[in-house]
Amino acid sequence: xxxxxxxxxxxxxxxxxxxxxxxxxxxxxxxxxxxxxxxxxxxxxxxxxxxxxxxxxxxxxxxxxxxxxxxxxxxxxxxxxxxxxxxxxxxxxxxxxxxxxxxxxxxxxxxxxxxxxxxxxxxxxxxxxxxxxxxxxxxxxxxxxxxxxxxxxxxxxxxxxxxxxxxxxxxxxxxxxxxxxxxxxxxxxxxxxxxxxxxxxxxxxxxxxxxxxxxxxxxxxxxxxxxxxxxxxxxxxxxxxxxxxxxxxxxxxxxxxxxxxxxxxxxxxxxxxxxxxxxxxxxxxxxxxxxxxxxxxxxxxxxxxxxxxxxxxxxxxxxxxxxxxxxxxxxxxxxxxxxxxxxxxxxxxxx
Length: 351
Prior knowledge:
alpha/beta; globular
């Protein structure tokens, strides 16, 4: 990193560069002609991402990897944000929801968001946008109501449950509370500081799609993608996901991140639900039976449990992403395309 703090004005900072979404986001940012600066807690994880990007043909000079062991430390991101035109705050405690006390998960999420915004203020002469990766988890209370959720909805109970129940609140409420508290802090900052840069939050549902860096083993496949592996591997067709069935391709979320950053006049102050399809195990099996017949797919109950257009079925809790589609003028990646891409990616794990 240059000691004088001078950077090209086309650099975009991505926190949590080694994350599932971040890799594809970095790829898109580079493909669109911008530089990437990514933060990681340990450098080897970031260097793996850089290596993968270099293998795609991108230039080493356009990729900075910064090790920041504790993103919650005051001033931790000030140097990283210097000279950046946008910040994508993707770093978030996810696996930690099962290992850390729920209150600690909430603290990390909110304090890291505060550090991002503090760094943005220090570089507000250059930074144009800060995009916060929230979650559909910030939009509903448990159990999910049987209706369509929109950007107007908020989780109203999980933070209080964590405060009252402590460690007994569990990982689900820890995650819901952390996403809700961090996003509320994000908007409270905008209300109180009225910064010169745009501020946008995205609420994605379950992430699907091929990662930039392959998982080492099938045990590392994320929960949101495990149904794809079970079907490709010829296992019994999996049942419904926990809580809801909505999904979104990470390549679409990456596109929404970049669009939000580059269109602050349209995205500033906005929440955008990102949710493209409701499929599930049976839908995946039916699609792959047609599109990739060489795979040994179990039949299950063809056509059952999902809509032919992969939209939410009537009478179930789901998410309305029409605002994002109308704002950007671009629809999501077709579900069948995501399914085939994932299956082709996962074939590498078949023995």
